[in-house]
Structure formats: structure tokens, C-alpha cells
Amino acid sequence: FFFAAFEKQQYIIGLSGLATEPSAAWVGQAGTLLANNAVAVSPLSCNLLGSLTKLLASPCTGAGLWPTSGAGSIVDLPAKLSNFFSPVASTGYSYNGVIKLDHNFTEKHRLSARWFGGQGSQTAPLGASPALGTASSNLAFYFEKAPIHVYNYALVLNSALSPRTTNQVLFGVNYFNQTFNDANHSFDTNALGLFLSPDALINGKPIPGAPNIAISGFEQVGITPPEGRNDITGMLADILSYNIGKHQFRLGGEIRHARVDEFYFRRSLGSFNFTGTFPGTPWSGTCASTDPTCALADFLAGDVSSSSIAVGDAERHVRVNGFDLFGQDAWQVTRKLNVNLGLRYEYFGPLHNDSKDLAVLVPGRGLLIQGKGIDSVFPPDRNNVAPRFGFAYQPRENGDLVIRGGFGVFYDQINMNPFLDFRPPISAADGLQDNPIGPHPVANYSKDVFTWQPNTFIYPGITTCTTGNAATDPNCGSNIFNVYSVNQNFRAPYFFNYNLNLEKGLGSAAVWQIGYVGSEGRKLSMTLNINQFGQFATLYPNFGSITQLSSVGTSNYNSLQTTFKIRRWHGFTSQFSYTWAHSLDLMTEYRGVFPLDSTNLKEEYGNSDFDQRHTFSAFWNYDIPGASWGPKILTHGWQVSSLIQVHTGNPFNISNTLGVGSESRPGLNLVGDPFAGVSHEFSKSLPGVQWVNPAAFCVPGPGCAGPTDFHGTLSRNKFYAPGYGDWDLSVFKNISVTERFKVQLRAEMYNVFNRINLPTGPGSVNSNGTATDTIGDFNGAPGIGAGEPFNMQLAAKIIF
Predict the structure, then answer these.
(1) Band of the pLDDT at 688, cuts 50, 70, 90?
(2) What is the distance between the alpha carbons of residues 384 and 326, in angstroms, rounded to a whole number?
(3) According to the model, what pLDDT value does residue 329 have?
(4) Which residues are bridge partners to 387 per DSSP?
(5) Which residue, among 543, 546, 548, has the nearest Cα to 531 in the 3D structure?
(6) C-alpha pair distances (Å), 192 with each of 41, 50, 453
(7) DSSP bridge pairs for 8
(8) With bands split at pLDDT 50, 70 and 90, how would you rate the model's confidence at 292?
(9) Residue 61 lies inside a defined structural domain of this protein
């Protein structure tokens, strides 16, 4: 048997989001603020703004980092919030092919071969994701351009060794390659007068692209630095099945080998923050929280609040090995009782390489190189034994009542991302590759509260610092390095899963099920700043933040789930589901997030980022009976289907309105009812919805009621963001042209009632307590994602 298929997809999607851009009018207002206070405009900032400075007394005429001509120009926008609507659409394409071949060698041996190949690219806003530590931009310059290539190969040999015994051998290889850049990464920072570091190079050449500049209140520029990943994973598995009497035995195992080339040059072009609170400036703290003029004035004066850069070759080639073994018995104890017993062993090896350029900080021993000073970045975990148990019991002879239950231990493959691409929310190392030691050292520098100068290097070149103490390693000098560590008690994460449910048949066409499902996570990955309060200032005076990946997280989930199904009752099929659930943990994300206080993890325990208390979904499909009158082509073959999804919102943390919160989640005092006087009605003036009252929160300190300690009284994920509701409706018409040739006409309508679905979860509610985006745009799918404004799709499907 031979099968081949090819699919091409191409899209152009108009954007719907509004943004605030630093137009010439905004720059003029900030220039007035400088002039009134006799503060000079920074020549470097003037160069970066280019013709956006046309209203200043001494404007610059260069191109700058912002689009100032053609579609998407921001020069003539008014000085008001949400002044920009992108006229440039996001674009993309995808080419995919599949080839499948089945061959019977004999009646007992069958080989299946499959190949999948796909390649494509997209140029679109990145989508702001707290989970991935990403910002987004509606400026076409800073759309993310992401070409991708994926290939998958698989061979499966099924053999019937005897009437009781079968065997399956599976061999597979997966290839993945993707790179990321800003759509316009042609900028030359040196030509603009921004000298970063003598060693801000990739392969000996200057790094093209824009630095990441964040001016509070405006969209950022320089969103995506040069980065990407290439990996090849191979696996070989064998499963032997043997049936005897009331037992069905399965024994098997799998070995895996992965090779990964990660080249994430994050902060290689520098990251600079301008907040409007630069110490000593006449305007510091004088602007309202909704007025970004002071932050733009800081930028125009060249006053940097905080900055960081990673200098050096961050590319790493690593390998990971793993294997598992399992045994299972499906035992039909009696005609009414079936029991499943299983035992699994899993091994996930630490990542390693032969280049001797993976460095890890081990407190007390200093920076060590994997394979040269330390065998592995963390000791291998060889204790991953996972028992499983399940049962199904039918107490009645007619079989219309079934009781099922189960318990199991499940280990999780250790994710490589936090080791090599952590994406820290503060100035910190991005992974093991960012340590200042070895043949390819990377120096992570931080520099805060300074005024940049044109044509002057802001950061030094690559400097090694093996001991973290200039007294024992003069190379450290006076530099402060951010380094990465892995706790030497790091273990594979695992969880317990348990469930008990009851299923009852109702007549011949309906089934109702209700049950409890729960789980508990242990040894979950968390990343801490173990030098948050200078605990290692004496031992390692040249180390700043020390990011440490640890397995200290816990979680628990409990839910009541019920489902009602109708199967083809007079042409009607449907399913209704409801879940009440509650999930709590210490930290949901293992990437891009630090605890508020890395020395007090108990205060992080709270609602999970994905916690949804109530979820309801309904699906139904109806084959409309054909009429006995009229033309058959018009009166037969109609089908209607619908999908309804409703759920409550996910929790969020209110942002610190001053932008000075500790680590990821700012400590705030709760001083009032955040929902008092809030209507949750859409307002064109925002635009969006006032979800909470920001006056209910304040930063601990003078003028803020409650404790002055930075922890605050507001617990993590205490309040919930907007919920979600969507009703989709489809009408199909099936036309039989011949016995083997059919046409299906489809009209599919999404979000029929055009409900405004606001974003939910972390980052969905800003520091002003407003939700100003839609859920699709927030998740990187503007206009077409689930819950976006009403749209309709017409299609024809040919079946032959």
C-alpha cells in the first residue's frame, strides 16, 4: 500500500491591536520637558530616534530604529495613548508532505514506513508571553521572522511470532530547525553611535539588529535577537505482547538519543530600560502613571535606569541520552472485574557535550566545566521507578454501569529549555552557556543608573572570572557577572495521578459519567536567584545574580468531572461536559520566572497560572432528515453542528505601577476591594475594560498602608482575569455527484454572538488594572484565534 499527500497553506492576516508609539509629537513633548529644565538632548538618543526628533530645536535626520517612512510610519501620529494601528499584515506559509508505505513480507511480518516533511515561515508579532518572557510589537520592523524546517522518519515492523505472541519494533528520527530574528535586523549599532562592547560579535562579525529598548508606556524595539535551535532525536523501541488465559502481558523498552544545537544570543545586542524615574532628574516621578512623557524624557536625555548584555559565543552543541523499560499485565480477574498492573523504569541522562564548554556554578566549589572538573551538570537520577494500577468493574449483568479507577506514578522528561534558554525576567544568565569560563566564555554584565554616551563602549569585552573573586582571579577585575547554577540535588520531576469515576448507560443511546480526578506533583523544576540578598557576596564578590535551577516545586490538582453523551439518536449526536477544578502550586512556569523571595518559597504557594475553576463545553451534530418532496439535491444531505465553550478566567498578578518590583512578581499591599466601583464594561477611551481598581494596591513603603516589608500582603495569583465564552456554528451540504465522487460545501461561523473575549491569565491585566487586548491577539493569533471577533469561513471539500 502506498500513500502520498501534499499541503500548501499561505495566509495574510490583518492586525487588530492598538499600541502607543513615540511619534514626533510625543518626542516634542519630552523635548519640551528637557528644555524647560535646561537638560541637553543626548546625541546618541537623537541618532536612535532619527527624524522623530523633527520638532526639537536641533533635530536629527537619520533613519533611527523606528519606522519613519512608508506603510507603518509613526512620525506624524498624535501624542496620545493607543495612537497606532498597524497597516502591515502578518504573513506566512507552510508546505507539508507525507509519504506512507506498507509492505507485507509474509502473513506474519508487516513493515510500515512513513516520512513527513514540512517547511514554512511566518512574519508576525511575536505575542507577549509571560511564560516565555517575550514582549511584542505592532511595528513591522519588529515582527518576528521565523523560518522552520521539520522532518520525521519512522519504520515499524509488526510480527506475529505465534498465536499468543506478537512483537513490534519501532525506529524513528525527528529533525527540527528554526531560526528567529526581527523582520528588520539590518541595523548597525556602531553606525548609530551605540557602542555596546568590543566583543559584541557572532563568528567574529558585528551582530546586526536593533538593541532591546524599553521606554515605559511605549512598545519596545529590538524584540527578537538572533536565535534558534537545530535538533535531531532518534529512538528505538521494542514491545513484546503475550496472551495466556486471563492475562495479557506486555514487555518493552525504548532508547533515545538527542543532539541539540542551541544558539540563543539573548541580550547580545543589549537591553536598556527607561522608566521616567531616573534619580536626580527634575521630572522624576512627576508624570501620572498613564503618562509616558517622563520615561521618554529619560530616553531623550540618555538616562538609562537599568541595562544588561551577554557578550560572547552562546552557541552550544549538547547531547542527551535516555531509556525506559516497562512491564504490564491486563488481568481479567472475573467476568465483571478487569485489573491492570504495570511497572515502569525511566532514566533521563543529564545534558553533556564533548566541547568542554558547559559550565555550572557549584556553590563552595566555584565554576566548573562539565567533563573537566565535574562529570555532569547534575548527578544522574537513577531512582525513577513508576508503579501503575487500574481497574474496571461492572456490577450489573447488563453492563450499563461501570466503575473505574486508577493510580500511577509518572516521571517527566527533563526539559532542556531552562538549561540553555531560561529567559530571565531580570538581569541574569540565560543558561549554562552564559558563564564566564571555558573555551567559549560568555560574560553577562549589568549596568544601572547611568547616562550613555555616543561612540563610547558601555560594557567591557569578554572577561573570564573563574572564582568569582578578584582576590583569587585578577581577570575578574571590578566587573559584576551574572552566572548560572544547577542544584546538585536536581532530580527528574514526577507526579501521582489518581482517579475514580462512574459511568451509567441511559437507554440505548445515552451515557453519563461522573468522576474525581486528582494529581500531585513533586520535584518540579523551579529557578531561584540564590544570591538575591547577597548571600554569596563574601564568597563570590564578583557575582551578581546567581540563577539556580532546582527541583523543589510541588503542585496539586483536584477536580470533579462529568460528561453526558448521546450517540446517533435520530441523527443527533452530542456531548456535554462540565469540570470543577482547583490547581495550586509554588510556581507554574519553569522558565522566565523567579519567586518574589527565593529564600521563602512557602509564600509562593497559590493558584496555578492555568487554574480554571469552572469549564463547560457542549458539542452537537444533527443530520437533517431529507424531505419527501422537492429536488433531492436541495432537500437531502444537510448537516448542522455547533460547539459551545465557556470557562472562568485564569489568575493574574497585578503589575507594580512603578515598575520596580522585585524579581518577577512585585510585592504589593492589598489596601482595598479591587472590584469596588468597577463595571467591567467595555470602554472606547481605554480601549478595553477596567477589570480591577489599581487604587486597591500599593507598593509597601511610605504612604502605603500595611507592612513596609517588600513582600507585601497580596498573595500570588489571588485574583482572576476575565473568563471566556464562544459559540461556533457550522452548516454542511453533502452532494453525491457519483457513487465515488462527493462534494461537501461548508459554512463555518465562529463566535456567532461576537462576544468580546478579553485575555486571561498572567500578563492579561496591566498595571492600570485594565484589560486592553483580545484573547487571540494576546496569544499571538490576532483575528483568527479562538474567541476572536465573529468571522465566517466558506469552503468546498472534494471527496473521492
Answers:
(1) confident
(2) 12
(3) 98
(4) 343
(5) 546
(6) 15, 10, 12
(7) 95
(8) very high
(9) no
C-alpha cell at 687: 480601549
**Where on the phi/psi map is residue 308: left (φ > 0), alpha (ψ -120 to 50), or beta?**
beta
pLDDT reported for residue 777: 76
**Burial (0-12, 13-18, 19+ Cβ within 10 Å), 61:** exposed
Residue 55: other Cβ atoms inside 10 A: 15
- The x, y and z cell numbers of residue 59, run together, are 533635530
Choose the weakest-confidence range: 67-81, 117-131, 530-544.
Answer: 117-131
Count CA atoms within 13 Å of residue 694 on its CB side: 17
Nearest Cα to Cα of residue 95 among 119, 112, 76:
119
Find the helix packing angle between 24-36 and 293-301, rounded to 10°.
70
Say whether pLDDT at 274 is over 60: yes
Instruction: Please indicate, yes or no, whether residues 597 and 746 belong to a single structural domain of this protein.
Output: no
| Domain extent for 599 | 328-417+454-608
> Are 755 and 785 contained in the same domain?
yes
Classify residue 439 as exposed, middle or buried by CB count within 10 Å of its CB (0-12, 13-18, 19+). exposed
- Distance, C-alpha 16 to centroid of its chain: 22
pLDDT digits (tens, 9 = 90+) for 328-376: 999 999 999 999 999 999 999 999 999 999 999 999 999 999 999 899 9
Q: Are residues 568 and 649 in the same domain?
A: no
Q: Of the candidates 608, 643, 660, which is a domain's last residue? A: 608
Nearest-CA neighbor of 303 among 40, 75, 66?
Answer: 40
| Alpha carbon distance 715, 606 (integer Å) | 7
Assigned domain for 600 exists:
yes
On whether residue 585 sits in a domain, the answer given is: yes
Per the structure, the count of domains in the chain is 2
647 part of a folded domain: yes
Q: Are residues 649 and 696 in the same domain?
A: yes
pLDDT of residue 130: 42
Among the three residues 560, 585, 608, which one is the final residue of a domain in this structure? Answer: 608
653 shares its domain with 762: yes
Alpha helices, DSSP H, located in 537-695 = 632-635
> 602 and 558 share a domain?
yes
Question: Residue 784 above 80 pLDDT?
Answer: no
Q: Is the pTM of this model over 0.70?
A: yes
Kindly state whether residues 733 and 788 are assigned to the same domain: yes
pLDDT of residue 664: 55
CB 238 within 8 A of CB 253: yes
| All three cell numbers of 209 | 539588529
Is 655 a residue whose pLDDT tops 70?
A: no
In the prediction, which pLDDT does 135 show?
Answer: 58
The C-alpha cell that represents 694 in the structure block: 489599581
Q: Are residues 585 and 459 in the same domain?
A: yes
